[in-house]
Amino acid sequence: MTESTGGIDMDEETSGVVKKFLYVNRKAPYGTIYALESLEVVLIAAAFDQDVSLAFLDDGIYQIVKGQHTKNIDVKNFSPTYRALEGYDIEKLYVEKESMEARGLTEDDFLVDVKVMTKSEMADLMASQDVVMSF
Amino acid sequence: MLHTVNKSPTERNTLDSCLAHVKKGSAILLIEDGVYAALKGTESAKKLEATLKTVPVYALQPDLEARGMSGRVLDGVKLVDYGGFVDLVAEHPTVQSWL
Which of A36, A79, B72, B76 is at a distance of 20 to 30 A from A64, taking alpha carbons? Predict the structure, then answer.
């Protein structure tokens, strides 16, 4: 039993194992619930001290755009949470260059520091993981 | 006829279908993720630019604000609030929601 499992009894062989988790975000933030659900699961992995990376591609890029103000659509603005990820030691955020450019966006438009990479580099990143979760 | 589009143009082909069926005298209103279609520097903006020559295009301001996209809208696209949305619905005899 370890502190990080919150008292849940875990097999000795599985406790303490750190895996590489990649969360692939491909959906715009408010039209569907995927972006918010992804964030929730990311925070769970962080609580278990896993090696977490986040990838933003396709419409997922829109999740981390600066200046979101949701007051007038009566939906929670969860974009500040991406800035809090650093506090959970989640610092590996990747943006696919092609997706960013197709949307007329640049690195300066994001509310967090990201590493911009090409599609082919993204493919390598995906291939290097133990677990990939797609949202 | 008022056409509303609520899907992102890079996620679904809803906008393309709408644009292929819209006729002079109609209007298009972009709502929810549909507002991403109005962003400068995108493929969809080029299509809307051509559409704007014959048909007015509107976008719902609260949805743009929520997504941090207020300052990025293509010139010629008119912004409306919820009151404006209601006016557009009232002005047109029919509404087609492209889902």
Answer: B76
Where are the domains positioned within chain A?
Answer: 18-134
Q: Tell me: the pLDDT tens digits for A27-81? A: 999 999 999 999 999 999 889 999 999 999 999 999 999 999 999 999 999 999 9
Reading the block at residue B66, the tokens are 């929520």
Domain A18-134 has CATH 3.40.1260.10: yes
Q: Is the pTM of this model over 0.95?
A: no
Q: Is B46 on the interface with A (CB under 8 A)?
A: no
Q: How far apart are CA B57 and CA B88, in angstroms?
A: 11
Give yes or no for B43 touching A (CB within 8 A): yes
In B, minimum Cα distance to A79 occurs at B67
| H/E element, A123 | helix A119-127
Task: Read off the pLDDT of residues A108-135 as tens digits, 9 standing for 90 and up.
Answer: 999 999 999 999 999 999 999 999 999 9
Model ipTM value: 0.91
Q: At residue A62, what are phi and psi to the nearest 5 degrees? A: -65, -20
Per the structure block, which two tokens stand in for B12?
């679904």
DSSP state, residue A104: T
Can you tell me the distance from the alpha carbon of B87 to that of A131, in angstroms, rounded to the nearest whole number? Answer: 50
Cα dihedral A50, A45, A115, A60, rounded to 10, equals 160
Q: Is A106 on the interface with B (CB under 8 A)?
A: no
Restricting to B residues 11-40, those with a Cβ less than 8 Å away from any Cβ of A are: 11, 32-33, 36, 39-40
Which of B39, B61, B81 is opposite residue A104, by nearest beta carbon? B39
